[in-house]
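Forum > Structural Biology > Help requests

Title: Can anyone predict the 3D structure of Bifunctional ligase/repressor BirA?

Hi all, first post here. I have the sequence for Bifunctional ligase/repressor BirA but no way to get a structure on my laptop. I'd be grateful if someone could post the structure tokens.
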Amino acid sequence: MSTKSKLLELLEKQKGSYLSGEELAQQLDISRTAVWKAMKSLRQEGYQIQAVTNKGYALCQENDILSGEAVRCFLENPEVEIQVFQEISSTSQVMKQKALESRLPHGSFVAANSQIEGRGRKGRSFYSPKGSGLYLSVLLYPGKTVQESLEMTAAAAVAVCKAVRESCGVSLDIKWVNDLYLQGKKVCGILTEAVTDFETGDIEFAVVGIGLNLYEPEEGFPGELRQKAGTILQKGQQVDRNRLAACIVNCLLKEVEKKGIPGEYIAWNIIPGRKIKLHSDFKSRIVLAERISEDGRLVIRNEQGQEEILSATDVSL
Ligand code: BTN
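Reply #1:
Sure, ran it for you. Structure tokens for Bifunctional ligase/repressor BirA below:
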């Protein structure tokens, strides 16, 4: 790890408190000049660092630059591979590529401040502008079969709800199958992609991509998203995205260890009991959503009064 990274980690761990140049130099076993140079370089990268005579250096609380060093400070298992980008094509695309190239630890992840080619379900794009969200793709070796892949999406939905409640104090709703809502608007999308062993039907690895709309984008949401998309935080509210990213990963790794669909996924789902619109390639139909089954599928009552069980379909409220 570079001196700059080690320094950033120390500052992040004590965000808001002053650390003297001498203390930092001693902890890192470098000269005070080297500390000063690394500070200068961090500032040039945009980190808000205060320097006060006789007190030392402090990373400002408002600093919200996403960094691997900062996320690692809050991870329960820091022995994972972390890559953080200010801009990237797609965190899921990059995570998947890395996992194909070499075996990385379970729970490794790629995070970004913005994505140029953010991907959604069914080949759709996911709007990922800079400074307004958190885009994260986590690598899992889940020890599950293809039939159990819904368990990962469900685990991720529950994990994000728990992490958002802990970090932002906001309770989100789950909308079957992979969306999180707040006050009737989508604020998070989840995309689970798995690479399977064709012979055994087991999942070799999966990449769970999570896109959160935290703040209103600078120019607002574009086009038809304006009606559908919302944000987790309102004007004037702020969250430490590094801490939030770590909290999501910590929660996800716990949820995914559990067998089956988490009870919270069913309990926090807003679909049951509602008239919903189902979209397939050629037509839409309005049906009654009855319940989410124990294996995470949606049980509906169709136009003819018959029960149908769906595994993955586009649903709107
Ligand atoms: C959906 O709503 O259809 C799923 C959206 C998933 C978006 C996330 S953002 C992080 C990760 N990288 C991507 O390109 N997509 C997922």
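The mean pLDDT is 95. The chain has three domains: 3-59, 68-267, 275-316.
Shout if anything looks off.
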